[in-house]
Design goal:
The chain is α+β, with helices and mostly antiparallel strands. 39% of the residues lie in helices and 20% in strands.
Length: 273
């Protein structure tokens, strides 16, 4: 095997082996080493490699996106914690709904004088619309998750209910220390990622349904998925028959999905559970 010159290759070197030969395009001997001549070929090869890398990255990103979507939905812990957290937010808001307190955010004086007094810089705002109110609620919100238990009787949903309510209605003790730590940790992650959104929702005085839509549903890996879904038969919701849903009480039933109210059993009939 040897390198020889060939007119067919326009003076370039040819790699010849046996009866076969091929031009090594773009290579020429110069002072003991080869140097590139065909820059366009090199750029074309680099472009092909870049395309393969881009396609591979896109596939990985799409795969991650599908995994994130699978983690979001009404049947997940994140959704249950999000809904329960909003219940707690409104319980705390109710405690201060009649507050007449104000926050004096004035911090300096201007050169303007009115009735012999210099005008102060800043403003006084109601406590109910202050960021401080939101911060105080969020600080103790996740600690409350320890009082909740998993309630899996509503079809298709991962719900959290207060342990005392479950025990009174169902007569069951569903407490699980592992669940409690998981609820608290998930709540902390929720607060960390949505602190600004929670503050805005409280300041804008959203109702409970509006706050659920803003914090638990929507895009960007929302805890409960992109949109609410219809309640399963046997459960109802006052909000257009969409989750979160409530089981029909004993002696009541609902055979259709997506309903807002339960029906009473006919005389002589009753529900089995």
């Amino acid at each position: 095997t040897e390198l020889v010159r060939s007119r067919a290759c326009e003076g370039l070197f040819v790699w010849q082996r046996g009866t076969g030969s091929a031009c090594i395009c773009g290579l020429r001997r110069g002072r003991g080493m080869f140097r590139f001549r065909a820059l366009p070929l090199i750029l074309a090869f680099a472009l092909v490699v870049a395309c393969f890398v881009a396609v591979d990255c896109k596939k990985k990103k799409k795969s991650k996106s599908k995994a994130a979507t699978a983690d979001a939905g009404i049947g997940t812990m994140r959704c249950g914690v999000c809904i329960a957290a909003i219940d707690e937010i409104f319980a705390e808001l109710k405690k201060t709904e009649n507050s007449t307190s104000t926050l004096d955010l004035r911090w300096g004086l201007t050169a303007e004088v009115n009735e012999g007094r210099a005008k102060r810089i800043g403003k006084v705002i109601p406590y109910k619309r202050s960021e401080l109110r939101s911060i105080e609620i969020m600080e103790k919100l996740c600690e409350k998750m320890k009082e909740y238990v998993k309630f899996s009787k509503v079809p298709g949903e991962f719900q959290l209910r207060l342990h005392k309510d479950i025990k009174d209605v169902w007569g069951e003790d569903m407490r699980n220390d592992k669940d409690k730590s998981g609820f608290e940790r998930t709540c902390e992650e929720l607060i960390e990622s949505q602190e600004e959104a929670i503050t805005t929702a409280i300041r804008d005085d959203l109702n409970e349904t509006e706050m659920e839509d803003a914090l638990c549903f929507g895009e960007n890996d929302a805890p409960c998925g992109t949109a609410r879904v219809a309640c399963h038969p046997g459960s109802v919701s006052e909000f257009q028959g969409l989750n979160p849903c409530t089981l029909c009480a004993h002696g009541m039933y609902q055979p259709e999905p997506g309903q807002q109210a339960c029906l009473a059993c006919q005389e002589g009939f009753n529900t089995t559970q």
